[in-house]
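Private note to self, pasted from the team thread so I don't lose it. Backbone tokens:
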């Protein structure tokens, strides 16, 4: 079983991702719409975090840095609609393994990234 946490303040995004990823019976999905709640609840049992960069409660890069301090082995895939080279570089510097642009070209691209991380 692969435990995946989705952290995004946009309920439409988390709902869509949750429904899509639940099709895979090997995935256990947990959704957080508040990054502070997610940071408090994500544990070592979480394998992958899909993390949005732009959230009002906490910047995703700040959460990434704090999450990796607590759980350095968790794989984080950043998601954003607002890409800049600086954000990409910072997400990798803080330990993200992949970066996805919203809107997603296809949901299959997300599955592909998850499969790459868990291979």
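Design output:
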């Amino acid at each position: 079983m692969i435990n995946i946490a989705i952290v995004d303040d946009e309920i439409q995004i988390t709902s869509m991702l949750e429904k899509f990823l639940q099709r895979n019976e090997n995935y256990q999905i947990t959704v957080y719409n508040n990054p502070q709640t997610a940071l408090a609840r994500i544990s070592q049992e979480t394998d992958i975090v899909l993390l949005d960069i732009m959230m009002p409660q906490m910047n995703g890069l700040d959460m990434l840095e704090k999450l990796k301090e607590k759980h350095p082995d968790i794989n984080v895939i950043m998601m954003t609609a607002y890409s800049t080279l600086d954000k990409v570089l910072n997400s990798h510097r803080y330990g993200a393994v992949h970066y996805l642009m919203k809107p997603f070209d296809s949901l299959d691209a997300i599955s592909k990234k998850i499969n790459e991380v868990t291979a």
